[in-house]
Write a structure and sequence with these properties.
284 residues; alpha/beta; Oxidized Rhodanese, domain 1; 2 domains; 5-stranded parallel sheet; 10 helices
């Protein structure tokens, strides 16, 4: 079998390959505060056999002015080393989160130059629904020293977004629910006002999934974006509340071959907090 894996793997595939040398499974579950759930405790109680806990919630650059920013090069290198992940390893990521945080972990890794990364289609929920094995506790693995990763790429800054308001080179696609993007009240997730970056299109991240949490087909994904007015021949920047569900759209775009899309990591948390940025509210 090739060392490379597809970007999206099924529960059946993982069950067949689980335990293979150089295959690492990561639990990238992270919950919104309102969920009142403890991702680490849930992982320790029941996870896919051999899976290691990424602790995605702590994998942010606290020194950055961007809220909940992607980790720095050094941070990610240290985390991967501590988890015993070597450059030649194949990585499969899953989550059990309502906001599908495996996509955020996927983008974190690939933006830092780690290429052999896949998402488990349907996540832990599908694995459990099929009655597949689980284990508790924490698996044993040896830390490594890999020599680091690259600096993150495909990330747009607030300055990039300000310039895009003038140039309109990139389409801005917001992954939040329509009530938050086009509403006028308070944002029910992050607080502050509802609204959007002027000119934003809206593809709520949940629309890229089937009822069982698996990703829709490539043709269906294309239809989801095109129905929202997205021109898939033009450059795209995705955004959301804090950069998490925008990563879901990036993965969906990746599945249909659109790998030039970028992430506005600061997203609405950063944009809405700046009194000098232009905001749009209400219907488009």
């Amino acid at each position: 079998m090739s060392n490379d894996i597809e970007s999206l793997v099924s529960t059946e595939w993982l069950a067949q390959h689980l335990g293979e040398d150089r295959l690492v499974v990561l639990d990238a579950t992270r919950h919104l505060p309102a969920a009142n759930r403890d991702a680490r405790a849930e992982y320790e109680a029941a996870h896919i056999p051999g899976a290691r806990f990424l602790d995605l919630e702590s994998l942010t650059d606290a020194s950055s002015p961007v809220p909940q920013a992607l980790p720095s090069q050094d941070q990610l290198s240290e985390r991967l080393d501590s988890l015993g992940i070597a450059p030649e390893d194949r990585i499969v990521i899953y989550d059990d989160s309502d906001v599908k945080t495996s996509a955020r972990a996927w983008f974190t890794l690939i933006s830092h130059g780690i290429e052999d990364v896949a998402i488990l289609d349907g996540g832990l929920a599908k694995w459990k629904a099929e009655g597949r094995p689980l284990e508790s506790g924490t698996p044993d693995f040896a830390p490594v020293e890999t020599g680091g990763v690259f600096s993150p790429e495909r990330v747009a800054s607030k300055q990039d977004m300000l310039e895009n308001l003038e140039s309109e080179v990139h389409q801005v696609v917001d992954a939040r629910g329509a009530d938050r993007v086009f509403g006028t009240g308070d944002d029910p997730v992050h607080g502050g006002a509802c609204g959007r970056i002027p000119g934003s299109l809206n593809v709520p991240f949940g629309e890229v999934f089937n009822a069982d949490g698996t990703f829709k087909s490539r043709d269906e994904l294309r239809e989801v974006f095109e129905r929202a007015g997205v021109d898939l021949t033009r450059p795209i920047i995705t955004t959301c509340g804090s950069g998490v569900t925008a990563s879901v759209l990036l993965f969906a775009l990746h599945l249909i071959g659109e790998d030039d899309a970028r992430l506005y990591d600061g997203s609405w948390l950063e944009w809405s907090a700046d009194p000098d940025t232009l905001k749009a509210q209400g219907p488009a």
